[in-house]
Amino acid sequence: DTAVSQTPKYLVTQMGNDKSIKCEQNLGHDTMYWYKQDSKKFLKIMFSYNNKELIINETVPNRFSPKSPDKAHLNLHINSLELGDSAVYFCASSQDARSTYEQYFGPGTRLTVT
Amino acid sequence: GDSVTQMEGPVTLSEEAFLTINCTYTATGYPSLFWYVQYPGEGLQLLLKATKADDKGSNKGFEATYRKETTSFHLEKGSVQVSDSAVYFCALSVNTGGFKTIFGAGTRLFVKA
Predict the structure, then answer these.
(1) Which residues of chain B does A102 touch, with a Cβ-Cβ cutoff of 8 Å?
(2) What burial class does residue B40 get, using C-beta atoms within 10 Å of its C-beta: 0-12 exposed, 13-18 middle, 19+ buried?
């Protein structure tokens, strides 16, 4: 009965590889997000989808490509991984895109690029 | 642009001490304000929120009041416990043509027994 789930929890890979992280929410929410948290705990929005439509696309290298097959799922694909991509990636969801609604976070995926 | 500034950590307190973590914001429009908490190895979870001026959010003994005149949303707790050790994030969310939530840098709290 996990509200927001992510797989995998840990991902260790080499530079130049391509990898994907999957996210699913069972809360019936319309809006989903990807965040990147660096080693100093700073949290930065990357993308947001509302009902499968991209609504936020921050300045992120185009090696990162989100995909939302339906409103319960938001996946993140990363091409040509670099050392600087090492971080914890969090998926989140909210009821909709209005500012009064809080976000529900997944447990995070720790990506280590060697 | 919109931003959140919170006090740098780490903050180290003894059990039963009083906690204040300062948070100030800059925003166009009328933001909603949030405190999230992140326990070790976990994702963020909402601690409390306030959606308009003078609202007080409260949960698990934590409180914060939305002060529009000082653009602040300071987090307080009267008596902290070891289990409160975590990273605390202040955040704002505002619709101004686009929509996003902006998080502060986080404040790590250590509570000693």
Answers:
(1) 34, 46, 49
(2) exposed
